[in-house]
Design brief:
Layout: H1 2-41, H2 49-54, E1 64-71, E2 75-84, E3 87-97, E4 104-113, E5 132-139, E6 158-162, H3 168-174, E7 178-185, H4 199-202, H5 205-243
Parallel strand pairs: 2-6, 4-7
Antiparallel strand pairs: 1-3, 1-5, 2-3, 3-4, 5-7
Length: 244
Amino acid sequence: MLNRLLPFFFVLATLVCGALAIWQLNRYHEKTTEIARIASVGPLPPLTNTEFLADPTGPWANRRLCFRGYYDPRYTFLWDNHVQHGQIGYEVLNLLNTEGVRGALFAHRGWVPRSPNGRNEHPHIAIDDDVRTWCGTLIRPTVLPFLRNSLEYPLHEGNNVILDTRTKPIEAGVGVPIFPWVLYLDAGQPGLFEAVTLPVDRFPPARHLGYALQWALLALVSVVMGKRTAKKVGTHIKKHSRSR
């Protein structure tokens, strides 16, 4: 009975590997398009508060922004499960506000390591709430659709561990809308931690292409093995029926 099911297993494996190959190929094209777009907006001058706040959900991906504002001193967000130098840690986010505007923007201040004593001991994050001009690159973060909530625990003052940057659960506690961007601050500004690579640079297009090729080859191997197995099962069934 098991031998008869093997060809169906290879059919399923072929479909799965083929789908993964197509997905990685699509990611390759998306990433190359994104890199081309970054190159096209690179020479543009940084957005100002006025330009950005006129349309905070506009086509600002990978644009530079110099935002005049101050950190909300009540909350710090520790974006969990980010690795630097083989060590697990957090990327530190604070909310940037500006006078007269009901809304906030995530500012990315860099990476800090997780405590050797575990996740229950959080790093001390100092917050300078002076009004400054903060410059960086606007990135629209990817959220994880299988997570019900970005917050690990209900929002509270101080450090909050988050699993992604989904804004709705955080807005409910903060009391203001949060713009759908993370401003990755330029190095050299006050109060920053260890710099991180921008998301678009962490997984280059060539790697997606390599994975697509791997999955395509696995799909091809599965087709060949499936055909051979089906032939053997067919021969076995014929011999078994004749012996009866």
